[in-house]
Amino acid sequence: MQGIIKEFVSIFPGIESFFLMDPQMAIARVLLIFLGFFLCYLGHKKILDPLLMVPMGIGIAMVNAGILFMPNTDKLGTMFLNALVETPAEHIDAFQIYFLQPIYALTFSNGLIACLVFIGIGTITELDFFIANPKMSLLLAIPAELGTILTFPIALSMGFTPSESASISIIGGADGPMVLFASLQLARHLFVPITIVAYIYLSIIYAGYPFLIKLIIPKQLQGITMSDFTVKKVSSGEKIAFSIVTGTVLCLLFPVASPLFVSFFLGVILRESQISRYIYISDNVILSGSTLFLGFTLGCLLSADIVVDPKMFKLIFLGFVALFLSGVGGLLGGLIAYNVSKGKINPVLGIAGVSCVPTTAKVAHKCAHEANSDAYIMPYAMGPCIAGVITSAIITACYITMISNFTV
């Protein structure tokens, strides 16, 4: 009877592989399949960001279902991709076997996917308030980097190397492409778990940060309308000039992060130049397409062997710490801005300094509008949100440069 069952099971290699792998791995694999289902459900219900969670959930569920013994080897694997190939010959072989290998090799391993996302983000970003009020925007964004700074020593104390700790700390900037870029530069071996943790937490931000706002900011301050705060009108020409000059200066000062700077400001300039064909491609093709393959490929990279690594649980904890500290720092900065402006600035704007464009700006506006239906602070919130992108990129560049010099 057992022989018949064994022969029947062998017809389905994916099922057979469950019985041939370590029990711990098999259990993790089942849990990941259900995690994929759950992320798809949360994305479908708009509880988490559907643009990322639906493709990521599909990838997680199906890659862990589709494990088999690879042809001509005695190792378990999938037909999705192999992130461990190194030599040119291995890449050529992998291109002929794994259907996602070209996308991973040509857009992930070199950080191109992060740059493509940044071009799209730049295309949908409005710079008016940031250019009109750069000092206030930066003063709100800098405290919101608290998690990016303090998570580094915490990660070191938990046994991570300086390069690993820096990569994990970038999660506190709440900028997914930045995390992806930094981890590929500093800790390629932890790129998958760090980026997965970052993107899942970034999707949770929209639901979690409002509770933090209510905890720290008194209700009577949440609904400040900022009607007394004047905003200077900025022309398209001024925005283009600002983008060219600022982007060039930032590339000069922080060349390690120049691919991110040039991608973001390219998107902004395309928007302000009103090149409709490029704007449509950047938003509807580049941003949408790169987001789809970003979520799906990351999901396909999350296999059971990564989850059972003890470092994964530390990453989950540190990712939460980084984003929590950044949220607290941003709101404390908002309270300082409120007091310095003598009540003109809504302190909720501080959460927008955590640079998840435009999610944290939407969170700030939503909370202010709930407290006071006359409060419309979205245009103001975009200022610190954009400033947060710049400060996060600067910190990323500093981490990469300092750690690279330290290890040489």
Largest sheet: 2 strands, antiparallel
Q: If you compute it from the alpha carbons, what radius of gyration comes out, rounded to the nearest whole angstrom?
A: 23 Å
What's the helix-strand series?
Answer: HHHHEEHHHHHHHHHHHHHHHHH
- Characterize the overall form: globular
Helical run tally: 21
Label the structural class: mainly alpha
- Uncertain segments: none
Provide the helix percentage. over 70%
Strand order of the largest sheet: 1-2
Gist of the model:
By secondary structure, the protein is mainly alpha-helical.
What tags apply to this protein structure?
21 helices, 408 residues, single chain, 1% strand, mainly alpha, two-stranded antiparallel ribbon
Q: Describe it for me?
A:
The chain folds into two domains: 67 residues, no CATH class; 297 residues, no CATH class. Helix 7 packs antiparallel against helix 12 and helix 11 packs antiparallel against helix 21. The protein is 72% helix and 1% strand. 49% of the residues are buried. The N and C termini lie far apart (62 Å). The model has no long low-confidence stretch (mean pLDDT 87). A two-stranded antiparallel sheet has the order 1-2. With 408 residues, the protein is mainly alpha-helical.
